[in-house]
TrEMBL record:
It comes from Bergeyella cardium. This is Lipoprotein signal peptidase. Pathway: Protein modification; lipoprotein biosynthesis (signal peptide cleavage). The active site is at residues 156, 190. It is a multi-pass membrane protein. It is found in: Cell membrane. The lineage of its organism: Bacteria, Pseudomonadati, Bacteroidota, Flavobacteriia, Flavobacteriales. It comes from the Bacteria.
Length: 214
């Protein structure tokens, strides 16, 4: 259990520290190169949905996502207790702890950031879409923020546009189009979930020597 707590704490600490720094020092849409590298940038965007900017269904979709994350976290706590009693290996415990921490990290943003910051991305009911309002955010007394409980957005900032190229007009199919890889912007919590998932896949036989059993 100590291992799970330590991994979760460290990932949450880095995740929340990076998000708070970006939100209180950058305007939404602001982007700067890291170490002077054009392919490694800090780009501030806010995401009302899932990892890597995926979202759906306006506020209903957002509420469903929060409920899903809560169910995931609750289910993982149950599994941790079971696996620890059974003496599960680190090939299972460590990646699952990373996924657990990532889910909590993004849940914190969605549930509480609208209550503690004075500006952010909100859902415009009339337009039927998410809109970015305000500049660099500041902390405000709890409950006096730009939105209400469960209506905050996830802060993303890690951007790796390894390829950013506009194809010449004469190219078949892609002529005149902008080709960007990797265009998605994400955060430390997303990274923890992704890395944990990859580790589970790569070491699945060691993680689940007797098959997956709930």
């Amino acid at each position: 259990m100590k291992k799970i707590v330590l991994i979760t704490f460290l990932i949450l600490l880095i995740d929340q520290a990076s998000k708070i720094y970006i939100k209180t020092h950058f305007q939404i849409g602001e982007s700067i190169p890291v170490f002077g590298l054009d392919w490694f940038r800090m780009t501030f965007v806010e995401n009302p949905g899932m990892a890597y900017g995926v979202h759906f269904g306006g506020m209903i979709g957002k509420y469903l996502l929060v409920i899903l994350r809560l169910c995931l976290i609750g289910g993982m706590i149950h599994l941790f207790r079971k696996w620890l009693k059974e003496g599960a290996s680190n090939y299972l415990i460590i990646p699952m702890a990373m996924i657990f921490a990532g889910a909590i990290g993004n849940l914190i943003d969605g549930m509480f950031y609208g209550l503690i910051f004075d500006s952010g991305t909100v859902y415009d009911e009339e337009l039927g879409r998410w809109m970015d309002y305000g500049g660099v955010s500041r902390f405000v007394p709890f409950g006096e923020g730009y939105s209400s409980f469960m209506k905050g957005c996830v802060v993303d900032m890690c951007h790796f546009p390894l390829v950013d190229w506009v194809a010449p007009d004469g190219f078949p199919i892609i002529g005149g189009k902008r080709i960007e890889f990797f265009k998605y912007i994400f955060n430390i919590a997303d990274s923890a979930i992704t890395v944990g998932g990859v580790f589970l896949f790569l070491f699945r036989k060691k993680a689940f020597p007797n098959g997956f059993d709930l």
